[in-house]
Amino acid sequence: ETVLADCEISVDEGWRNFRIPIGNGALGAPVRLDIEQPGEYMIGPCEFVPTSAQTRTSIVWVLIDTLRQDHVHCYGYERETSPNIDAFRKDAILFTHLVPQSSLTKPSVASMFSSTYPPTHGAEDGPEVVRAGLPNIATQLNLAGYESRGISSNINGQPKYNYGNEFNGWIDNDSTDKGMADDKTIFDRAIEMLRFVQGRPSFLYIHAMGPHAPYAPPAPYDTRFIDRAQLMMDTPDAAMGKYDGEIFYTDEQFGRFIAEMKTLGVYDESLILVTADHGEEFGEHGQM
Asked: What count of other Cβ atoms lies within 10 Å of the Cβ of residue 27?
């Protein structure tokens, strides 16, 4: 008896994609796959993927929610909040003038997904959804032969608002609890997606939430830019220090993802975009 894979899923996980090597048999030859599971289960669509070299560039879009441009070190910020983004910048084009279409996530991301302004797509706030019939990045890439997969920890960045339904796969990563959304988990799952689509043209959208309020970076990132006494303070300086700690933590997770791309040999052949949906205010205009 040959066991090709022993796959385990935790009770709270619900769903996972598996990629199982089946050898180098002749093209068109029959393959039998027996699956055993002690409890109830459901099998989604199965597909066979040839292992020939990929010929088209894959696309990875990393969106870091609420990341201010002027708090990224390679944009001139005095604090070294972003060593991995800084290193990535050496292989990339640094855009210096980009204007988000809103200071809110939903309309900003909807504008980027649909290439339309908020009054056109209609998803400006609250329960509003993107109007039907507009261009959509996942749809266009699917038509071009790309497999599109997304993951987001933002409640306003989910398919129910009509701008993620076209993805072939989507993961909601603790979007109902901003305090629990951990960018380590986001990038762990993003690495799983990256491995799953390896060898075929793909579009991966990764929406990280680290810098978003509440500012609560895990130790030791919480005191990287402020001392421990400031952690309980409710001042702009204290908030900014914790915010910068969140950026550093997310940057470290981004670095793990880039390292995995290099390990898999897909970094040089991929189009990688890193951006934000909007910034954050620390009293510059009288508000927090």
From this structure: 7
